[in-house]
Amino acid sequence: MSTPQPEKTSGCYAPGVIDWVFTRGRCIESTNEFVHQLAHQMNEHGASIDRLMVSLLTLNPQLVGTSETWLKSTDMTTPINASHGVRNTERYIGSPLAIIYETHKRVRQRLDNLPEDAHRAYTELAEEGYTDYVALPVLFGEVAEPGAAIIISTKRKGGFSDQHIESFRRIRDYLAPVFEVHALRHISRSLMNTYVGKRTSEKVLAGMIKRGDADVINAALWFSDLRNFTHLTETLPAEQILEMLNEYFEFVSAAVTARGGEILRFIGDAMLIVFPIDGNMCNRTACSAAIDSAIDAYDTLETLNHRRRRHGQPEIEFGVGLNVGEVIYGNVGAPDRLDFTVMGPAVNRTARLESLTKQFDCNILFSKNFAELIEVPSEFMGDHEMKGIAAPQAVYALCKT
Known about the structure:
There is one protein chain. By secondary structure, the chain is an alpha+beta fold. The chain has two domains: 14-196, Beta-Lactamase (2-Layer Sandwich), CATH 3.30.450.40; 199-398, Nucleotide cyclase, GGDEF domain (Alpha-Beta Plaits). It has eleven helices and 14 strands. It has helices at 14-22, 31-44, 96-103, 120-127, 162-196, 198-205, 229-235, 238-257, 283-310, 345-360, 368-371; strands spanning 51-57, 63-71, 76-83, 107-110, 132-140, 145-154, 214-226, 262-267, 270-277, 318-334, 337-343, 364-367, 378-386, 389-398. Helix 1 packs parallel to helix 5 (162-196), helix 5 packs across helix 6 (198-205) and helix 8 (238-257) packs antiparallel against helix 9. The radius of gyration is 28 Å and the shape is elongated. It starts with 13 loop residues before the first helix and ends with a strand. Residues 1-10 have low confidence and may be disordered.
């Protein structure tokens, strides 16, 4: 049986927009660009829209959702990310979005005759000359839960007609599967970035997914490990251990990501970080970024440990090994359970350098190759045996001031 085609309605020619959605529109991968073109399509077919916002819920440790807002006055579409805490704010509570996501119902509000207690979502638009506001839930999946919302506003005198509203409802129903694809794409990228890092996620999503798929790259390498972690796990409650780990990971992450580094793996209390040498970073730039990140992390640690001492908490102590060299960057593991990591002698030496920081009672140690590429003054600590490496290796540290 063929699907009935939507009929033409006065005020907004819905079939023309729907035809665009399922031909050219569905091929647009960027949500920002899709919303921009959707607004133009709706106006070309008589919608009289001055503002179009699309909100998508997502799965992200920091964000509850993301939105794209198009304005006719500027013909620009602007993205906005919403943190999890937004649901506890005055701006969200009682707002049209809150009503949509909590009740699954449509919201319609004329803006040219607002009650005194109207929510700021309405009053702010009314002050800008908008006259009418329609917000529609977009239901996803078999459970028919709102996964997105469409908010349409106009400055048209008299607002939207009943025919406009009916057309918007029809268009919304046909937009649902397209927005579900956009939401799932956003979620997959978000989760991949969260769990494997941005560079690695881009490679995986681009198709580098088979066991053995790998590139040979050059990179500055960082390996760090907490001191006395075994003792701490035996003596501290689990929640304090998790809090300490998260504090340690957070300030190291802030230092390295600001300089182009990427956390490749968390290994218990250890971190493996790469500063790839590519079009954005040469050898010297990558090594300088790594040593500057380490120095910055230890500067932050001083302040953090001062606070921890005041609260009777154990200090965070860790060592860092730094190296530079060629590594294999790719997939390794079982056929159905893979890890995307870096491997090779340069990685092994980086971990061994970190192990020596305990022996030298020194926070940061690095290789000769690394020392030759940085401008920060360093001192030679001698040639030293490293587990699994045949010849003694030259070890360097920052000059003591």
